[in-house]
């Protein structure tokens, strides 16, 4: 016996001919079904029928949009995001009760007719004519499915949605032709499966699986008879029959479905009556969509993952293409987030900073040598309410962050690295007076920086040189690093920063001004953590990555995406990195960062406090992890003086005092159970001291350089001149040996070249009141 066609035994062409043969029915009867008045059609029946043969033969069936699941590195769910909350399931995973209920109430003759139910059309015409209004439709399940495909394809575009649902004869005829083609291609069971997966059931639930989870917190395959009848009844009007907000109407509608199932013989009248007596039995699971629902405070990391997907060309040529894939969903994204590190980060911030504080805290943790982002979070939660925000304070503006924050003295190790990489010895000594003017001119990548009379000073008057690099780093001596960058020039520093992935949060190029040595250009915590990871990895910089793998389920198939890979390159020699590690190890052992120490576990880091204490930092690392903690006012308005943070009063906030303990607690928790790896250290001899300078026990996290500014436009606050302090020992280059002059004379008298090995003839420059000075070895007064 030949196989019977799914369309009631007629071919698509025969069905079309049959349909066209009843053009009066199509042009007038359909008008009566769709609208009370045929004159409101907006499209003549004759013209629509004439255009029938020009409708494309193949119906586009877009993959149904589904929820996307974001996982941490251990496979734990972070969050679910979706444009449509939908999980596509096979027909075998849908309760038989629901299959029968939807057919009974929506299209009882579904298995008997083809794409078009002419009996149904006549029945609906008769009832509508008797009532004088539209009381019954005649769309088959196949036609309804086709309409839902159009709506799905329209997405969230209101204009396209209106076009897909407009009540015109033209759209009806287009829908009918596609229904004929779908019946031929798919068959009844597949059409029913697709219909049940695409249909909207209210409460943000698309498809039966999402609806079953929403209303009954169970899988669609486990639905009972009364539960299935309730869901089937929702399809006609999800808002009117919403069981959550209108249980009376929902119950009434459910009972209508049960009675209809009994009338068509799907269940007995006795079964229907028993089911009608049962309560709705709701066990509602509220909609939980988006990064706002993320576990362990990972909402901002979740948002960062979305930004990575939308911005990286690896996922599509244009942002529009990438957004279409994201909205389509069905993705499973495994990320680099380490649950232990994330929990430790959030706990540390929560214990030290309240979300209602005048200032906020943000932090990020990166794995050296891989670039993997292990943790990210902040004190102000992801959300829309009071003391909440959607701005990710840990990342650059392009990735959902703000304009960044001045990193202060945490930038000084980059200056030190640039100097060491260009041949400067770590024993290099400068006069480092308490107060001085910026030396000028200073070489840049494009010429010279020239500004005179711009003052800079140290945090405490007791900080008076001469200092060598080790002690200057431990005590964070401003004037030392100003003298250092003045000698090596700005260009080696900006080039080193670029190699380490350290860039401005606003996306602009680093400005060529010597104040960069003191961290005047805004950066994000993720940038600083990733940059310091270069030191931990002994000079290897790896670009940050957040995604390990992505797969997408479309129908019954699953495909994998290529994901962005980290790019690793050598930013500095191992010797340079080891030397910086030695310098920064001293900061946490005997410097401004002692409150951030990890006890017996080797660690290194640097404090930073900006002008007027708008921001305070601690950036540090072990060989396993690198982390940055920032505390401050994102709006850059509240100075951290006479302020309560986390319930603790501070007259002045320093980098080692608030961010330091947060970093300590964060890293201690993140590293618990992990090996305590050692650094490879170098021997940095201490130069002989001319006099004994007692230590000031106060945290001297500096940056009190009131004359800092940018570029050739001058320095903010540079309205007052400064007097030079005493010079240090004389140079030892070709110019001979002799005492240096005063700071403004002896230092300003020389123009440092871009290359430390560059040599000028001895006595080429002279200080105002000092003898001839050589600069071959970089020694200065």
From TrEMBL:
It catalyses: Preferential cleavage: (Ac)2-L-Lys-D-Ala-|-D-Ala. Also transpeptidation of peptidyl-alanyl moieties that are N-acyl substituents of D-alanine; [GlcNAc-(1->4)-Mur2Ac(oyl-L-Ala-gamma-D-Glu-L-Lys-D-Ala-D-Ala)](n)-di-trans,octa-cis-undecaprenyl diphosphate + beta-D-GlcNAc-(1->4)-Mur2Ac(oyl-L-Ala-gamma-D-Glu-L-Lys-D-Ala-D-Ala)-di-trans,octa-cis-undecaprenyl diphosphate = [GlcNAc-(1->4)-Mur2Ac(oyl-L-Ala-gamma-D-Glu-L-Lys-D-Ala-D-Ala)](n+1)-di-trans,octa-cis-undecaprenyl diphosphate + di-trans,octa-cis-undecaprenyl diphosphate + H(+). Residues 75-261 form the Glycosyl transferase family domain. InterPro entries: Beta-lactam/transpept-like (IPR012338), Glyco_trans_51 (IPR001264), Glycosyltr_51/Transpeptidase (IPR050396), Lysozyme-like_dom_sf (IPR023346), PBP_transglycosylase (IPR036950), PCN-bd_Tpept (IPR001460). Keywords: Carboxypeptidase, Glycosyltransferase, Hydrolase, Membrane, Multifunctional enzyme, Protease, Transferase, Transmembrane, Transmembrane helix. Pfam families: Transgly, Transpeptidase. Residues 686-706 have a biased composition (Basic and acidic residues). This is Transglycosylase domain-containing protein. It comes from the Bacteria. Residues 362-631 form the Penicillin-binding protein transpeptidase domain. Residues 678-781 are annotated as: Disordered. PANTHER family: BINDING PROTEIN TRANSPEPTIDASE, PUTATIVE-RELATED, PEPTIDOGLYCAN GLYCOSYLTRANSFERASE. The chain crosses the membrane at residues 20-45. The keyword Membrane applies.
